[in-house]
Design a protein that fits this description.
heterodimer; A: 428 residues; mainly beta; 3 helices; globular; B: alpha/beta; four-stranded parallel beta sheet; 10 helices
Chain lengths: 428, 293
């Protein structure tokens, strides 16, 4: 009897196993692995050699424009780390990107930025794909399509760092905000796109959503926070081909209230409140010699107009402000040329400049320096589409120390960028 | 502004009554679609025939072409993975989305060769679904033409009879051509060849020719000196007839191999437009078969 039971059990187990093998396997009956989104991981690291020590570089500023552009810059408990911040080795980031369709009507994208300072949701947005008449809506946190470079991730840039004007006017993240975007593609033979964005406006270099109050008397709000969302962006882009040459041009505008709070800075604490407008024009001309070799000329011009009031503490008093009217009209550009010899080798040069720097306090122009230039050269080698090694040299004449003396910064950057997972797309 | 709006309305309204506007990724798909669609279909080819089909630049003008299309036909099998997805993402056209009735992936109708059992980029930029260059087997063109006919018939059922008739005409002509090409290629049977990339493998298979090596060490990885040295040995021991070279890669390594071993290098078109003289599908296979050593 016992034997029969045992053999029955064995038979049942066998039948079970057979059953399983027919349906590929048991565990797979409710498997969802086919729905795993496209995943990719991009690692960016660099070796940096500068003529100045990290602490010297951290205190440099572009007078009247921005400070702490290179290196870890701290005000209060926030520590902003840019890429290639330190002399020696830098692990700039590991970027995890996910993408998939949600349903027939939406796509979802998320980009997580892992660094030694923590994790940031760099992007997380849905995009419609089923709206008729050439419209598309995007919502969430995303890189604005202001200008050409702004919505492109660091790892697809042709240089290891951000153009000077971008970094100085908008900070290391550019316009990367939570909000909504509406784009319309005209049904024309030429590529002609229009877009508007309504964004929260938290960008710390130019906009901002916080209230301003003296640290010694935080109950007394000097300037209340603006209506939120606070930042309006609009742009149009036009593109066409002439033979094997493609032209892409764009005009952009960003308008919003400014609440720039540097009251917790150790050096010259101050705050600014007002309204700001940023204008941009961009042009890319790319000529193809064959499938792999091209010459690309890319230029962008930025002009910003900040109009408002600057607040400073009187000597030895943090309970109240001295206020002065402040107007900043600043303009800069970058222009770069990159030649791809073949699938492996590319060389490029870039000229950065902030050439207008009108800082008008109480209707007096403070005569800030205006010949703020940076010169960059790079050569890169890609072993495949997924790995790139780049050597870059910067000569930066835009930085000044606290005594107002120009400090040339020379940087040699060796950048390594690698990607695994889903195949990246080569958008223009 | 008024004229602008008027032009816009004109565009939108003409689109509604116009013939079916079909965008296709590569020129060969354009030729099949024209053969079947004839005067009932407008065809827009996105890629140029003389460029590497893996590396087509996603220029914005292609986005506006997709914006104005009623349908999209792609080769599939991940050949367009690097350039079509960003175009679709920006075209804001729900009629051509993957999975909708206006989207056709031709690879679905083909039994692909060289499907890797495991996939790793340590093996180069491999195609996980198999070798995607299937249009170079002439018998596959017939399968693709039937696939395109069924696709166009669903999109434009009123013209189904016309598409079917065009398909029959095409099949008749193509079958005749295939006999001609088979006769030309009969003497090439069992020959060994070297390619740059495995993009002529379906053609080789169709005529029992053996591809024994590629100039690139792994798919998508440019030639290395070590691999080239190994190729010299392979050429000396296995005595392949020739190097069948595509038009878009540099022939530097092939020329070097020719200098070292005397092996013949033949530049072969992979698509319509790859060489100036190749203007139709028949001319493509005429060239491939007649120039084969």
């Amino acid at each position: 009897m016992k034997k029969t039971l045992l053999s029955l059990a064995a038979l049942a187990a066998f039948a079970h196993a057979q059953d399983g093998s027919q349906n590929s396997s048991f565990a797979d009956a409710f498997s969802q692995s086919a729905f795993i989104p496209d995943i990719s991981l991009i690692l960016d690291m660099s070796y940096v050699n500068r003529n100045l020590k990290d602490e010297e570089v951290a205190h440099l500023e572009i007078p009247g424009v921005a400070h702490g552009l290179i290196g870890g810059h701290s005000h209060g408990e926030h520590s902003h780390s840019t890429v290639n911040a330190s002399n020696g080795f830098n692990l700039n980031y590991a970027e995890l990107a996910l993408h998939s369709s949600v349903d027939p009507y939406f796509d979802l994208d998320a980009v997580f930025h892992f660094s030694e300072h923590g994790v940031e949701i760099e992007e997380g947005y849905f995009t419609t794909n089923a709206i008729p008449y050439g419209f598309r809506i995007r919502g969430g946190k995303f890189l604005s399509e202001f200008g050409y470079l702004n919505n492109r991730h660091h790892h697809v840039w042709d240089f290891a760092d951000m153009p000077l004007a971008y970094q100085a006017f908008l900070g290391g993240h550019g316009i990367n905000e939570i909000g909504a975007q509406l784009q319309w593609l005209a049904p024309t033979p030429l590529y002609w796109m229009f877009g508007i964005e309504l964004l929260q406006g938290k960008n710390e270099q130019m906009f901002g959503t916080g209230a301003i109050a003296p640290a010694g008397d935080p109950e007394t709000i000097t300037v209340s926070s603006p209506d939120q969302p606070n930042l309006y962006v609009g742009y149009t882009k036009l593109s066409g081909d002439i033979g094997d040459t493609t032209l892409l041009g764009g005009l952009s505008i960003a308008y919003g209230d400014s609440r720039i709070d540097h009251l917790e800075d150790e050096e010259a604490p101050h705050a600014f409140a007002g309204t700001s407008t940023l204008y941009g024009a961009d042009l890319v001309v790319k000529h193809y010699f064959d499938s792999y070799s091209y010459l690309k000329w890319q230029s962008e011009w930025l002009y910003r107009d900040l109009d408002g009031t600057q607040y400073n503490y009187p000597p030895d008093d943090t309970t109240q402000f001295n206020s002065i009217t402040m107007r900043k009209k600043q303009a800069g550009y970058y222009t770069q040329l990159v030649y791809a010899y073949d699938q492996n080798w590319r060389i490029g040069g870039r000229l950065d400049s902030i050439y207008q720097n009108d800082v008008i306090a109480e209707s007096t122009n403070k005569n800030m320096p205006e010949d703020l230039n940076r010169y960059t050269a790079m050569i890169d080698y890609s072993t495949s589409e997924f790995a790139r090694f780049r050597l870059q040299y910067n000569h930066n004449t835009a930085l000044y120390n606290e005594e107002g003396e120009r400090q040339d910064v020379n940087s040699l950057i060796f950048q390594v960028n690698m990607a695994i997972g889903a195949h990246g797309a080569h958008s223009f | 502004m008024k004229t602008f709006l008027f032009t816009l309305i004109l565009f939108v309204s003409t689109a509604a009554f116009a013939r079916l506007n079909v965008a296709v990724s590569y020129p060969y798909i354009g030729a099949i679609t024209k053969a079947v669609g004839a005067d009932k279909v407008d065809v827009t080819v996105l890629a140029k025939g003389n460029w590497d089909p893996h590396f087509v630049v996603a220029r914005p003008s292609l986005i506006s072409k997709l914006r104005r299309s009623d349908a999209l036909i792609i080769n599939g099998a991940q050949l367009e993975i690097g350039w079509i997805p960003p175009l679709i993402k920006r075209a804001n056209n729900r009629n051509i989305l993957p999975g909708t009735k206006g989207f056709l992936d031709l690879s679905a109708s083909i039994e692909m060769i060289q499907k890797p059992s495991s996939v790793s980029r340590a093996g180069g930029d491999v195609h996980p679904d198999g070798n995607p260059h299937f249009h170079l087997a002439p018998q596959n063109i017939l399968i693709l033409a039937r696939s395109v006919t069924a696709f166009l018939s669903t999109l434009d059922p009123l013209n189904r009879d016309s598409f079917e008739q065009n398909l029959q005409d095409f099949e008749l002509l193509w079958t005749k051509e295939m006999l001609k090409w088979a006769a030309t290629m009969a003497s090439a049977k069992n020959r060994k060849v070297i390619e740059y990339h495995q993009n002529f493998d379906y053609f080789l298979q169709a005529y029992d020719i053996k591809g024994i090596a590629t100039i690139e060490p792994l798919p998508g990885i440019p030639p290395s000196s070590r691999h080239t040295m190994e190729l010299i040995d392979t050429i000396k021991t296995q005595k392949p007839c020739c190097i069948i070279h595509d038009v878009y890669h540099s022939t530097k390594t092939a020329t070097y191999l020719h200098d070292k071993t005397g092996i013949k290098v033949v530049i072969m078109p992979h698509d319509i437009g790859a060489l100036d003289s190749i203007e139709s599908l028949s001319q493509l296979f005429d060239y491939l078969t007649s120039k084969f050593p």
